[in-house]
Amino acid sequence: MPAFGTKGRVAAPVTAAAALAFCAFAGSSAPAAALSATPTARTAASGIPALVDPATDLGRHTPGPEPTWFDSIYFTGSVKANGQEFGLQVHTRILPNRSEAAYRWTFSVINKTTGWYKDYDAMVEPKDYRWSEGELDIKAPGLSWTGDSVRQSVQVETPWGSLDVRLVPTGPAMNYASTGVFNLADGVPNYEFALPEMRTSGTLVVDGKKHEVRGTSWLDRQWGEMPTSLTRWTWMNLSMPNGDKVAVWDTIGAGSKDSWATVLHPDGSYDVVDVEPLAQGASRQWTSPATGQTYPTRWRVRIPALRSELDVRITGNPDQEIETPDGSGYLEATAAFTGKYNGKRVRGENYVEMTGEWNS
C-alpha cells in the first residue's frame, strides 16, 4: 500500500479490482494481454473465477521485465491496550529491477488517544532481504513476516519500538474488482487481493512502554508494474457494521481518472461500483512540513449505486506522512467515518493512503 496506488468497482468473470498503494501480483498470472482489466459496474454473484489465490500468492513472484515491477505486502491495524487506541502499519515492498531503493520496509504507530506518532523507514541491501517464492517467508534486518492464508506472525524491531503480533483471518479474502486484476492507471494491469478482517493480538513496545494489544487488521497483497504515468492516488478501507468490506480507489494517471470501490459481502459475493471522484468532496488540506506536499484530511465519499454518503476524516494527528527515498512522501493515516451506507446510519474506523500532490 505505500508509495504506489489504485482503485475500482465490482465486475464479472474477467474484470479487475482496486490496487492499494503497494500490494501484490499473482504467481500463476496470465499475460496482461489476455486480461480484461477495466472494472465494470455491476453486482457479481459468488463463484466468479479469480485470477489470484491467497493460498499461493502471498509468496514472492517472478518479476516481469518492467523497471517499475513491484511486489508488495502491507497491513494496517486498529488495536487497543491499557485504555488507549493505536493504529499500526507494517509494509514491505521490493522493486527488483531497480538499482537503488529496491528493498524497503516501513513501520508506523499512532496513539489515537494522545496523537503521538512515529514511523520508521528501512532500506535493505538485496543480500540481506529474503522473500521466498510460493510462500510467505520474509526476513530482513528488523523484520520477520511468516505464515500463510490461515495464520501469520509479524515481528518488527526499530530503535524506538517493536511489534510482535499474530494475524488470523476471520472472514473471506477480497479479490479487488472481484477477480484480483484491474487497471491501476492508463491501461496498466495490477494484481491485488486483501485479507480484510484479521484478528490481531500481541505486544507493542513504544518508547520503552509495553502494551498487550488486541484488535483487527486489514492485509493487502499487490504486485505488477507500477505505471510511470500514475501521478496520485487515494485508497481507503472501510469495514461496515453489517460485515461488508469496502475498498475505495481513486487514481489519476496521464490519460485516466478512475474512482471505484470493491465491496465484499460476508457471503463472499461482490459489488464493484463507481465512486464520485474524491477530489469533489475533499477539504481541510494539510501541508507537510517535511516534504511540502499537501493532502486533504476530510472527504465526502459518495457511492450512488449503494445509496451511500460517508464523511471520512483523519484522526489522531494529520502528520502521519512517511517520507520516501526521493525526498517526497505519502500519507498513511488513521481515519474514522460516519454517514449512510445502503441508506442506513453507520460509523467505523479505517485507514487512508494518499500519494502525490493534492493542492489542486
Automatic annotation (TrEMBL):
<feature type="domain" description="AttH">
    <location>
        <begin position="74"/>
        <end position="225"/>
    </location>
</feature>
<dbReference type="InterPro" id="IPR010791">
    <property type="entry name" value="AttH_dom"/>
</dbReference>
<dbReference type="InterPro" id="IPR023374">
    <property type="entry name" value="AttH-like_dom_sf"/>
</dbReference>
<feature type="signal peptide">
    <location>
        <begin position="1"/>
        <end position="26"/>
    </location>
</feature>
<dbReference type="Pfam" id="PF07143">
    <property type="entry name" value="CrtC"/>
</dbReference>
<protein>
    <recommendedName>
        <fullName>AttH domain-containing protein</fullName>
    </recommendedName>
</protein>
<keyword id="KW-0732">Signal</keyword>
<dbReference type="Pfam" id="PF17186">
    <property type="entry name" value="Lipocalin_9"/>
</dbReference>
